[in-house]
Amino acid sequence: MSEEKHMEYVLKLVVLGDAAVGKTSLINQYIENSFKEDYKPTLGVNIVTKNIPLKSNSNTVVRLVLWDLAAQSKYDLSRQMFFQGCSGALFVYDITRPVSKNNIQLKWYKDLLKFAGTRSAKEGTYLLLGNKSDLTDTRRITREEGEELSRELNAIEFIETSAKYGDNVEKAFETLVDYIINRPNAKLS
Ligand code: G3D
Ligand code: MG
């Protein structure tokens, strides 16, 4: 009996966006009950992992390591560490709060450039998410405005999500993972 070769990739993804846009809710919705949480108070981050089988190869497992800023993070001190070794990012804004969208450009994208390096930014290994799509009555940012920002940032894709109801949540994470795994010269460890 021949032994099957088992492969495991480890992918670190960072989730970026203003407080209360729904970063933790998106991760919890995606991870469901299978999550392992490892809160590092000194870094101000939650690190959760999830193993996902690769659709194209059943012997290959991708271990996702998701880094999420805690609410009261001393983030300014640990940014370098936050971005170290990351393969991709999810930028999240709240469709009811224009300030949270403006800060993607003013703050979060700049941080990615600064701390993850221009190479990573140029390769565009990140998605833009407009979260809370269920809040139709209080929406203040149109889908078109989200798409426009996504083009400006050269993001892989723009997706509206509802972490509350799960709409497009799996799609968002898997679009990013598929892109990273399948692109040429994938930087995986
Ligand atoms: P953060 O991790 O980015 O700081 P959280 O954000 O995940 O803690 O979410 C902040 C608040 O927004 C939470 O409400 C959460 O339930 C809510 N929220 C997150 N995603 C959605 C969504 O898709 N739709 C709606 N309607 N609400 C969402 P509370 O009241 O617990 O502070
Ligand atoms: Mg949070």
Topology:
Elements: E1 7-16, H1 23-31, E2 36-40, E3 45-54, E4 57-69, H2 75-83, E5 88-94, H3 98-116, H4 118-123, E6 126-131, H5 143-153, E7 158-161, H6 169-182
Parallel strand pairs: 1-4, 1-5, 5-6, 6-7
Antiparallel strand pairs: 2-3, 3-4
Bound molecules: guanosine-3'-monophosphate-5'-diphosphate and magnesium ion.
Describe the overall structure.
This protein has 189 residues and is α/β, with parallel strands linked by helices. The protein has helices at 23-31, 75-83, 98-116, 118-123, 143-153, 169-182, and strands spanning 7-16, 36-40, 45-54, 57-69, 88-94, 126-131, 158-161. The chain has a single domain (7-182), classed as 3-Layer(aba) Sandwich (Rossmann fold). The chain contains six helices and seven strands; from the N terminus they run E-H-E-E-E-H-E-H-H-E-H-E-H. It has a seven-stranded mixed beta sheet, with helices on both faces. Helix 5 (143-153) links the parallel strand 6 and strand 7. The protein is globular. The mean pLDDT is 84. The site of guanosine-3'-monophosphate-5'-diphosphate (G3D) has 16 residues, from helix 1. Magnesium ion binds next to helix 1.
